[in-house]
Amino acid sequence: MENLFSYKISLPANIKDGEKYPAIYVMHGMGSNEADILSLVEELKNDFILIGIRGSIIQGSGYAYFSIKGYGNPDRESFDNAIKNLEEFIYKAAETYPIDVNKQYLLGFSQGAILSMSLALVLGNNIRGIAALSGYIPRFVKEEYKIKPVEDVAIFISHGEFDPIFPLHIGEENYKFFKERSKNVSFRLYPAGHEVLLKNKNDIIKWLNDEKQKSVEK
Questions:
Q1: How far apart are CA 209 and CA 48, in angstroms?
Q2: Bridge partners, 158 (sequence order)
């Protein structure tokens, strides 16, 4: 697959020729990397194809997907390019690997959460679900992007009650925004700052397993 991004992929150990598998595209926060965020869902490696996508911009000792003018204020050109390239990456990954295109999930923390929510609006019901941890939806995405229907997209939003970077009201706004558009939205608060607690991690694992089971029953 043409490398729009560096990435790390984990295929189920007992993968079978001709079968398709659900996939989780995992995106990290600013200054982090794909290995760090993949650790959140490592225990799902036998049930899902896991793809950790590395941001293309060097940021300190890690990476970022887009540059910012300040917290909550992405550089528009950089952000638009990231969305375009991630959309293309997802389509190419589904052509390259044995991915069930009806069971694709996005998961991200901070910048990764911002992108997960924005990509859900760009890709619409082509995505099965997203888990967005401690992020926000840029205003220009809400007001200027061509937003597709997400009524069938399962949404998991979590936020730290004491987040000093993206205050609690931002998480509540995310929930309200998607609640008006999707039939399946979960919103979880944790006694945390801008971080992922073990309880948050465990809730994500359970949510992904539950959503996978629902897709099997349909």
A1: 10
A2: 133, 188
Threshold 0.70, pTM exceeds: yes
CB 24 within 8 A of CB 51: yes
Q: How far is CA 141 from the centre of its chain?
A: 16
Three-class DSSP labels, the chain: CCCCCCEEEECCCCCCCCCCEEEEEEECCCCECHHHHHCCCHHHCCCCEEEEECCCEEECCEEECCCEEECCEECHHHHHHHHHHHHHHHHHHHHHCCEEEEEEEEEEECHHHHHHHHHHHHHHHHCCEEEEECCCCCHHHHHHCCCCCCCCCEEEEEEECCCCCCCHHHHHHHHHHHHCCCCEEEEEEECCCCCCCHHHHHHHHHHHHHHHHHHHHC
Can you read off the two tokens belonging to residue 172? 């509540």
Ordered domains of the chain (ranges, CATH): 7-217 (3.40.50.1820)
Task: Kindly report, residue by residue over 45-78, the tens digit of the pLDDT.
Answer: 999 999 999 999 999 999 999 999 988 899 999 9
The helix/strand/coil state of 14 is coil
Tens-place pLDDT, residues 107-117:
999 999 999 99
Q: How far apart are CA 43 and CA 48, in angstroms?
A: 10
